[in-house]
Amino acid sequence: MPRAHATASLLLTLALFVWAGMVAGISFLEAPLKFTAPHITVPLGLGIGRIVFAALNKAELLLAAVAVVSGFYGRVPAHIGTALGLLSGVLLLQTAWLLPALDVRALALLAGHPAPPNSLHTVYIGLEVVKLLTLLLTGCWGFRWALRVAGQQPQGQPAVPQAA
Questions:
Q1: Is 164 helix (H, G, I), strand (E, B) or coil?
Q2: Of 105, 155, 139, nearest to 22 (Cα)?
Q3: What is the pTM of this model?
Q4: CB burial of residue 157 (10 Å; 0-12, 13-18, 19+)
Q5: 132-150: per-residue pLDDT in tens?
Q6: Could you tell me which residues come within 8 angstroms of residue 46 by beta carbon, excluding any fewer than 6 positions away?
Q7: Of 131, 46, 49, 124, which Cα lies nearest the Cα of 88?
Q8: Residue 83: is its pLDDT beyond 90?
Q9: Dihedral of the alpha carbons of 91, 94, 100, 103, in degrees to the nearest 10
């Protein structure tokens, strides 16, 4: 394979693991801990959360684009392409529907209007779990594929020579 395909495979792997790290750090560490900090009120936490999750979403869209373009250019195996499709679908669902709905809810709460209970946060958390696990799995697949491409080894052959 051409050297550009090796670069695309490594860029794909990098994008997936950076994306996974951002999701893990923000969705599963920063967001829950924010409300345990001293002097953080619900309105302050909501205001910070709106800014942080809007920025995360923009970064995710960029990393998803890098991953999909790299995967397309590098002609990834079908299982990696399918996983990239799932990741793109989850991200687009969050971007087009879930984040705007959560933002409307947060703005209502910030304006002093009690919002009726709903399951939007539960859906968001569930999608974040699916996304994080898929990112990690796809990143591992992408890494193994990148090693094969970079070493130009036929599939199933070790990338590093075995000692006799």
A1: coil
A2: 139
A3: 0.89
A4: exposed
A5: 999 999 999 999 999 998 8
A6: 106, 109, 110
A7: 131
A8: yes
A9: -110
